[in-house]
Amino acid sequence: xxxxxxxxxxxxxxxxxxxxxxxxxxxxxxxxxxxxxxxxxxxxxxxxxxxxxxxxxxxxxxxxxxxxxxxxxxxxxxxxxxxxxxxxxxxxxxxxxxxxxxxxxxxxxxxxxxxxxxxxxxxxxxxxxxxxxxxxxxxxxxxxxxxxxxxxxxxxxxxxxxxxxxxxxxxxxxxxxxxxxxxxxxxxxxxxxxxxxxxxxxxxxxxxxxxxxxxxxxxxxxxxxxxxxxxxxxxxxxxxxxxxxxx
Amino acid sequence: xxxxxxxxxxxxxxxxxxxxxxxxxxxxxxxxxxxxxxxxxxxxxxxxxxxxxxxxxxxxxxxxxxxxxxxxxxxxxxxxxxxxxxxxxxxxxxxxxxxxxxxxxxxxxxxxxxxxxxxxxxxxxxxxxxxxxxxxxxxxxxxxxxxxxxxxxxxxxxxxxxxxxxxxxxxxxxxxxxxxxxxxxxxxxxxxxxxxxxxxxxxxxxxxxxxxxxxxxxxxxxxxxxxxxxxxxxxxxxxxxxxxxxx
Lengths: 247, 247
Fold this sequence. Notes:
2 copies of one chain form a homodimer. By secondary structure, chain A is α+β, with helices and mostly antiparallel strands.
């Protein structure tokens, strides 16, 4: 039986999502819990995609195959007891054998968070990026963001190490709003290239503080050259919010 | 010149407030920053009181003596650059030589936080106590709390290791409220004995879930016996919110 589960994690103390030898990763902790529960070393989970070290998730999605027939409550209880407290399984239910956490995904939503607080709260140090003396202008950022909406080749906005050859992606929504002292970017698209959201956050930040003009976002996009996009924004401001499927 | 400063810290990664050999403590980090800044190994800070390992602070107060005459902005800038990100100095200004962070304190406010969320968010794991299946009744807790208001001998509500001989303290305010999924206890008094707020939280929790009756709080108080009060609530739900002075 195939189970689809939603996972939330605080990325602070992980070397990213994907299993790596000798590193503490989200995947290795989840697979460890599944193996302990099943007393079976071959069981493993598949996620919608990886996240980098320091990146958080509210709603990562995984699937795994199991011979066990349990209620959702039992799955949550068993896995959350075995998992460290910086990973929580939020939901778990059976899906068809055709469901695949990665290949069936129709879209993803990410958020990027900055804070304008004059002094960052010690409680938020790993959960939003402190702007300090820089005060990005919301309207400029929004003007710049417009150029990214729709279907484009995002070569300029992904890591030069990206292996994927097809760099065309569709951004269906890109909003930037102020909430109390926070500046929150929400982006939804069919899929994202490696480092793409953090590069977009970095470019719109540069526009916000006046280093670039809003219209230059279009030029950066057209250049198809990663060097044009400047600095990638820090990982700890980024959250994978949800993954959508054709359900 | 004497400086009074307000300090916020995330207690998660500290072995409490007070300096201890080979341990990471809030005081040792603050004193290290002060010494680096002054290039003087004799400078040290005095706090309103210590907090235990895992206990947080929004508004701890300290004082220190300095030959430097700086603006508040310069103090904040210099100290916050030198301090680790889980400690932030929120304010700093000159006070009279008679001001003493501990002896001049007229009152303190603490909060204790539980969460009723069915599954605790990984982002809150160090910042509130997860109630899980236990659902304390707010009204029962409030009924129990009434007995603690006013001036009493709090022998039953402090660690048996408390060195202080005078265990009479005055609680001026004790409120318990629900906010979204959180249960928040706010307590204000002239001073608190070692482990006193966490013992009160533990007793009111036991009343809330029906292990004790609200009226038994008065009996526990009158017994002047720590054994009567049951389990101390976990440290990571506790916050030192503010310290008041006769200003």
